[in-house]
Amino acid sequence: MVRFSLLLLLILTFLSGHTLSNPIISSPITWVHIISRVPKELRLRCQSADDDLGNHMLPTGAEFKWKFRINFFETTLFFCHFYWGSKDKSFVTYDKNIDLKYCREKSDQYNCYWEARPDGFYISGDQKSWKLLNKWT
After folding, report:
1. Helices (H), 1-137
2. Between vectors from CA 112 to CA 110 and to CA 116, what angle results, nearest 5°?
């Protein structure tokens, strides 16, 4: 029984060790795109439990994007903190629910597009239809 428990623990540890640089299964590639549509500069920092993507400054029209594979347990989550002038906002930019509801499959990958606008943050899976999900206030 102890051997079985140790083996199970080892397997679970291996499966949960998925990060940006360590895909363990061949799930589709997911891209998250952050596009600035605010006047002046948008500052942001995005991270997950495993990966800190660092600080970025985006002029109007610029894009910051990253790719990853969803972990075995489908619990991958990224959040970002945004700063624009005197305003700031943080929220989840990727999780399973956002993926299923807003991000669409395109060949062997998924895309979640976020636009930061003066009135808030819009999401799209195809860059054609946008939905306001988060306001600055």
Report:
1. 2-15, 96-102
2. 165
Residue 57 tokens read as 């400054």
What CA–CA distance (Å, rounded) separates 137 from 120? 8
Say which DSSP state 102 is in. H
- Report H helices in 89-130: 96-102
Single pTM value for the model: 0.79
CA 126 to chain centre: 16
Structure tokens at 46: 């995005």
CA distance 16 to 71: 7
Question: What are the C-alpha distances in Å from 136 to residues 35, 83, 109, 112, 120?
Answer: 15, 10, 30, 19, 5
DSSP 123: E
Length of the chain in terms of residues written:
137
pLDDT tens for each residue of the chain, 137 residues long: 666 665 555 455 555 544 444 444 467 889 999 999 999 999 999 999 999 999 999 999 999 999 999 888 889 999 999 999 999 999 999 999 898 888 866 656 789 999 999 999 999 998 999 999 999 98
Instruction: Tell me the backbone φ, ψ of residue 67, rounded to 5 degrees.
Output: -125, 155
